């Protein structure tokens, strides 16, 4: 049996004892040039490019088959065609935005602004809040609307205040002015003045935003209010006008969860204190910003120049066909996914995955039973939650119905608006109905995985189930180090600093004793402190935010620990063979490290440090330094680069 290790990526001048990431991926990193249209590039991106090409082939084949009008196949082809017709798009100029601008011109009061926000939300234009429907964190048997902070054009509130983002702040208003000029709305000094007003308003809005660390807190971001409570929280805000324009069903806001109440209070004040003309400027900018990707080449280029080159250091925009595929994925993803699964996901892969998941769950069960720091009462709850886990592998059992979506091959912006409205209506229609436990929140062709605390489920789309994550023909050690540890990571999210606050039914409930929670929090704090001292090789001089990344770091640590235990379960009754001069344990850890093969441009690495809850790729690979099993596998000794004294190794599970 082959090992499943890509030895061509390795740099044997670097010892695994000193730098596992460098040893496993060093040659690949040195010899690989980041594609001109990307800010970072690695194992995930290679698979995503492959999936993207496969999806393009599916879309083109569907379109060339001249499907019957009204069929989902015709909608897929027409949506893609509407994006690829550059001549028509350039000929239209900013005309598709004219109805938005006319509506904005007619605004006279804060109520008018709220009505426009509701109307525009249905067309894909984000406003002051971003409503979404999900299971109630404290009652997972029902759906409820969450209100998420929004209203800014930079990646995060920190960009409006921190000195390290000063250059981005300075570049932002000129970009806004250029975009407004390209749409013909403003010219010269009027564009500059409008951009300055927009920046001032966004700075005010950003000041009420909670930071990334606070937004991770499941308890702090849960404030359930009824309609009277929402009105009291936001005096003067006409939610009736917003809901009517959004075409929301009656009672949609009878109860809502305010994720950041401070933001809602702030926008209520701003709506009455900021003049209507400034709100009109801001609304025009929101429209242009949201729909820029579907307008003329000049607007697309200016939009990319700021959000791609300036923010992430990416020199070249992605090929148009790739952006077209992305649009189809967003609007009709499961329709394409059904064809993708038929062509690219063998049944044998799902069978192997079921076996892997079963072993990972069993490894977690054994771990909880023997966990010294966890008491009996908490252990009982943890085991009950583990027993209630629902794994979803490959693709959904029930495919989404797109019969209600209208697509016109000659109307790109209209297609985007209708697709958004279709999704808004689909989600709002959940309110008052039973929870759909079969729903997927990723398409089968997505190279990723997720844990959903409200449904207590782990989900692995078909596209991630391929090398280096999973190879149906490869040795178990590398598969357990790859997809096995990823499975463990996702299960681990059910027991990380936030997921551990949900019970087995998906409800936000404290099922921990005070002593056990203190023990857990102490270990989590040690992990935060450890990562606070680290910096990625892609952004030297910039430290990781341990508090922002702690959930993912706990997931990685748990995934590694339990993934390794599950591998040992798979070998019970026999000794793992030596393959490629590597023991089974060594292959396991190499399998983990090659999953995180990758590199990033410095600007993108810095941006991600500010907003991404995941640690940089090299640090995720080298998280193995916390495992005694890693030290034993490679005979890591004091003085080696990966050495961590035993009493400083963080072990949670």
Mind explaining what this structure looks like?
Residues 16-396 form the Peptidase M13 N-terminal domain. InterPro entries: MetalloPept_cat_dom_sf, Peptidase_M13, Peptidase_M13_C, Peptidase_M13_dom_2, Peptidase_M13_N. One of its GO terms (molecular function) is metalloendopeptidase activity. This is Peptidase M13. Keywords: Hydrolase, Metal-binding, Metalloprotease, Protease, Zinc. The protein has a four-stranded mixed sheet. A three-stranded mixed sheet has the order 6-8-7, covered by helices on one side. It has a two-stranded antiparallel ribbon with strand order 1-9. It has helices at residues 20-31, 43-64, 72-84, 86-92, 98-105, 110-121, 166-182, 189-207, 212-215, 227-233, 239-245, 261-273, 276-291, 297-312, 320-344, 347-370, 376-387, 412-428, 476-493, 514-532, 546-570, 584-595, 602-611, 617-621, 628-633; strands at residues 40-42, 129-136, 139-149, 224-226, 255-258, 390-394, 450-452, 457-461, 598-600. The mean pLDDT is 96. The protein is an alpha/beta fold. It is globular and about 75 Å long. It has two domains: 10-34 and 345-396 and 438-648, Collagenase (Catalytic Domain), CATH 3.40.390; 92-317, Orthogonal Bundle (Neutral endopeptidase, domain 2), CATH 1.10.1380.10.
Helix-strand layout with pairing:
Blueprint: H1 20-31, E1 40-42, H2 43-64, H3 72-84, H4 86-92, H5 98-105, H6 110-121, E2 129-136, E3 139-149, H7 166-182, H8 189-207, H9 212-215, E4 224-226, H10 227-233, H11 239-245, E5 255-258, H12 261-273, H13 276-291, H14 297-312, H15 320-344, H16 347-370, H17 376-387, E6 390-394, H18 412-428, E7 450-452, E8 457-461, H19 476-493, H20 514-532, H21 546-570, H22 584-595, E9 598-600, H23 602-611, H24 617-621, H25 628-633
Parallel strand pairs: 3-5, 6-8
Antiparallel strand pairs: 1-9, 2-3, 4-5, 7-8
GO cellular component, one term: plasma membrane
Domain Peptidase M13 N-terminal: 16-396
Keywords: Hydrolase, Metal-binding, Metalloprotease, Protease, Zinc
């Amino acid at each position: 049996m082959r090992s499943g290790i890509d030895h061509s990526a390795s740099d044997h001048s670097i010892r695994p004892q000193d730098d596992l990431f460098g040893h496993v991926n060093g040659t690949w990193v040195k010899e690989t040039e980041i594609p001109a249209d990307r800010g970072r590039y690695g194992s995930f991106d290679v698979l995503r490019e492959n999936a993207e090409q496969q999806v393009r082939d599916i879309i083109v084949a569907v379109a060339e088959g001249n499907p019957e009008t009204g069929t989902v196949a015709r909608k897929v082809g027409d949506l893609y065609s509407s994006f690829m017709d550059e001549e028509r798009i350039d000929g239209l100029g900013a005309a598709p935005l004219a109805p938005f601008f006319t509506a904005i011109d007619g605004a006279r009061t804060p109520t008018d602004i709220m009505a426009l926000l509701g109307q525009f939300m249905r067309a894909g234009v984000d406003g002051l809040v971003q409503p979404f429907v999900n299971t109630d964190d404290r009652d997972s048997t029902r759906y409820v609307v969450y209100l998420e902070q929004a209203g800014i054009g930079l990646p995060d509130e920190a960009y409006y205040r921190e000195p390290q983002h000063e250059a981005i702040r300075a570049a932002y208003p000129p970009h806004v002015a250029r975009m407004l000029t390209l749409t013909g709305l403003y010219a010269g000094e009027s564009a500059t003045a409008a951009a300055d007003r927009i920046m001032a308003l966004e700075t005010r809005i950003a000041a009420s935003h909670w930071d990334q660390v606070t937004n991770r807190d499941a308890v702090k971001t849960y404030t359930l209010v009824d309609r009277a409570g929402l009105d009291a929280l936001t005096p003067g805000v006409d939610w009736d006008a917003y809901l009517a324009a959004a075409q929301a069903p009656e009672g949609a806001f009878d109860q809502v969860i305010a994720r950041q109440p401070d933001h809602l209070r702030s926008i209520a004040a701003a709506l009455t204190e900021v003049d209507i003309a400034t709100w009109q400027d801001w609304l025009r900018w929101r429209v242009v910003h949201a729909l820029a990707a579907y307008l003329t080449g000049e607007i697309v280029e200016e939009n990319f120049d700021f959000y791609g080159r300036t923010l992430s250091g990416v020199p070249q925009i992605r090929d148009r066909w790739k952006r077209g595929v992305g649009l189809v994925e967003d609007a009709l993803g499961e329709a394409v996914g059904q064809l993708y699964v038929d062509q690219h996901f063998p049944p044998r892969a799902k069978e192997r995955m079921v076996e892997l998941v079963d072993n990972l769950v069993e490894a977690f069960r054994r771990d909880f039973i023997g966990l010294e720091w966890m008491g009996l009462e908490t252990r009982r709850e943890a085991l009950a939650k583990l027993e209630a886990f629902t794994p979803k592998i490959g693709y959904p059992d029930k495919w989404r119905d797109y019969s209600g979506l209208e697509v016109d091959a000659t109307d790109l912006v209209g297609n985007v608006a209708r697709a958004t409205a279709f999704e808004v209506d689909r989600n709002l229609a959940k309110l008052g109905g039973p929870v759909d436990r079969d729903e997927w929140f990723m398409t089968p062709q997505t190279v990723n995985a997720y844990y959903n605390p409200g449904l207590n489920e782990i989900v692995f789309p078909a596209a991630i189930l391929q090398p280096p994550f999973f190879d149906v023909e490869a040795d178990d050690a590398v598969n357990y180090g790859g997809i096995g540890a990823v499975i463990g990571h996702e299960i681990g999210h059910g027991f990380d600093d936030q997921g551990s606050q949900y019970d087995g039914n998906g409800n936000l409930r404290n099922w921990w004793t005070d002593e056990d929670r203190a023990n857990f929090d102490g270990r989590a704090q040690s992990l935060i402190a450890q990562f606070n001292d680290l910096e990625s090789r892609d952004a030297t001089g910039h430290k990781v935010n341990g508090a922002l990344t702690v959930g993912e770091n706990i997931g990685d640590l748990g995934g590694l620990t339990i993934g390794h235990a599950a591998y040992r379960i798979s070998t019970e009754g026999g000794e793992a063979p030596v393959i490629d001069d590597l023991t089974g344990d060594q292959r396991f850890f190499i399998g983990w490290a090659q999953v995180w093969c990758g590199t990033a441009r410095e600007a993108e690495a810095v941006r991600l440090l500010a907003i991404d809850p995941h640690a940089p790729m090299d640090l995720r690979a080298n998280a193995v330094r916390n495992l005694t099993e890693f030290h034993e596998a490679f005979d890591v000794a004091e003085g080696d680069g990966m050495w961590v004294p035993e009493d400083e190794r963080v072990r949670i599970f």
